[in-house]
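Contributing new records

If you add data, match the layout below exactly. Sequence lines come first and carry their own label; structure lines follow with theirs. Keep one chain per record. Anything else will be rejected by the validation script.
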Amino acid sequence: MKIKCLLATVAIISFMCIPAQAQDETRHEVSISYGAVPNSLWIDIVGDFIPAMAGATYEHSKVVGPIGLEYHYRISRVVGVGAIATFSKHNEDEIMGDLLTTSSKNSYFTLMPSMKFNWLRRGSWGLYSKIAAGASLRHCSMDKTSLSEKTKSSENEVFFNFQVSAIGIEAGNQNVLGFAELGVGEQGVALAGVRFKF
C-alpha cells in the first residue's frame, strides 16, 4: 500500500513538473510585427522641411511599414539576445509651383542586434522591454519632371539606427502569443504582432 502511495505521489509530482520543464525549454522566439511612425519616416519629414519653407507642397504620400522580423534566444529567465530586421517604405510627390514635380521612393532596410528583458511572467501573459542598435540602408529613387525634360536618379545611404521599446506586453499560450509595444525607433513608436516560442 505504501509503495502504491509513493508511486502515485511521484507520478503526480512528475506530472506537475512537466509544464515548468517545458516552459524552460522554450528558449527560441520568432516574432513578426507591424509598427507606426518609425525613425525613417521622421528622417523623410525633416528632409522635406527646407523645400516646404521654399514653397514646395507634398502629395500622394504613402507609408508602408515598418514590417519587423525578429529572433531572440533566451539565455536566462530574464534576458534574451538576438536580432531585428525591418523594412519600411515612404513614397511622395514634391511639387514646386507648376514647373517641377519630383516623385521619390524611399526604401529602408534595417538590421539591429538586440536584447529582450522579460520582467514579469504570470501564467498566459508577461511584461518585457527591448533595446536594439544597428544600421539602416536607405535606397532613394527619384523621377523629376519639368516642362522641358524628365530625369531619373537614385542614391544609397547607410546610417545608425535603433529601437527602444520601453514597455511590451505579450499574451497567449506557451507557443503562440500576441504582443504590443510602446517605444521609439525603427520599429515604430507603437507596434503589434505575433510571436512563436519553441
